[in-house]
Amino acid sequence: DAKTTQPNSMESNEEEPVHLPCNHSTISGTDYIHWYRQLPSQGPEYVIHGLTSNVNNRMASLAIAEDRKSSTLILHRATLRDAAVYYCIENAGGTSYGKLTFGQGTILTVHP
Amino acid sequence: DSGVTQTPKHLITATGQRVTLRCSPRSGDLSVYWYQQSLDQGLQFLIHYYNGEERAKGNILERFSAQQFPDLHSELNLSSLELGDSALYFCASSVEGVIGNEQFFGPGTRLTVL
Asked: pLDDT by residue for chain A (112 residues), tens digit each?
């Protein structure tokens, strides 16, 4: 299964930007990079995904390196509600279809 | 609210028993995925169904089985339960079973095997 590497934990203050890094050095050319987050006592929640170019949506931005071996999820202004486990996932193709292979993720703590 | 519903929310049973977990996908979604989340293994993909057909299997035990019905709801059957099967079981749905599509997760069913 495709593997990503993320820091175990990160901390931020409320209202400040947060940059969550992810390494995916073995990613293949057709694999998407997905980010999901899991708030306490809830199911995972989609955040954003991309293939090659940077992506923005109402929740976050995704910056993908030119060689696609790494990416950064950017929360522009962290709120207390953003405290969660963030998962960076390579969405593999072929017979795997849309299955998501979750790693350990990054635990984000947001301080008031 | 993701639009995916799972029942029951909690389930407590004994070793050796059999249980059925139910999932209703979002309206219009043809794909259903099942995941297991335990403390030691994290979130693991179990199985994927698309419009009633099995599409992919992950680390699903032979004691576990699933199906997707014509109305697109899905059931995950767990039999000969062991203590180690205690976990959160999530169902997710998406429009199509293809790369890049967002998956919407339900609130999960917490299974406790005593």
From this structure: 558 999 999 999 999 999 999 999 888 888 889 999 999 989 999 999 998 889 999 999 999 999 999 999 999 999 999 999 999 998 865 555 677 888 899 999 999 9
Kindly give, in sequence order, each residue whose CB lies less than 8 Å from that of residue B68, ignoring residues fewer than 6 positions away.
B32, B49, B50, B51, B52, B53, B74
A 10 A CB-CB count for B52 gives 14
A2 CB within 8 Å of a chain B CB:
no
Q: Count CB-CB contacts under 10 A for residue A54.
A: 12
Tens of pLDDT, residue by residue over B50-102, are: 999 998 899 899 999 999 999 999 999 999 999 999 999 999 999 876 666 78
Separation CA A110–CA B32 (nearest Å): 33
> How many Å apart are CA B40 and CA B71, to the nearest integer?
35
**Surface of A (13-52) touching B: CB under 8 A:** 30-32, 36, 38, 42-46, 49, 51
Using a CB–CB cutoff of 8 Å, tell me whether B52 touches chain A.
no
Touching check for B66 and chain A: CB below 8 Å? no
Write down how long chain B is.
Answer: 114
